[in-house]
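Q: I'm writing up a methods section and want to include an example of the input and output format. Could you take the sequence below and give the corresponding predicted structure tokens, formatted cleanly so I can copy it straight into the document?
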Amino acid sequence: MEQRQHERFPAHFRSAFSSVNRVEGDGTVVDLSLRGCGIVSQTAIHPGTTLTLRIHVPDPETTLTVPQAVVRWCRNGRIGLEFVSLPPEEWARLQRLVKELTRHPYERTHDTQESPGA
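A: Here is the clean output for your methods example:
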């Protein structure tokens, strides 16, 4: 049975990935944690392949880049990735993004509204 150190949270972000041996593809990040993610993709990739992953994050529209993510499994149109290395600035962005995903939908909606008395 699979043991995770960090809980994965539901997500929906466009993504693209590539490797040095010319594997390329795109998909949708459907869950995300501090150590990895799950992607729905038409591209089949062998476990053990190291990829560069680009996650397109809205608000503001930016790209979170994971220079090294290892494919841990690939089955039924889904890919499981473990993040191996992240530069400090991308690590900080990932932490903020995961924190946002842990918040309740009400809080996310409320943040976008003008606060009373402002």
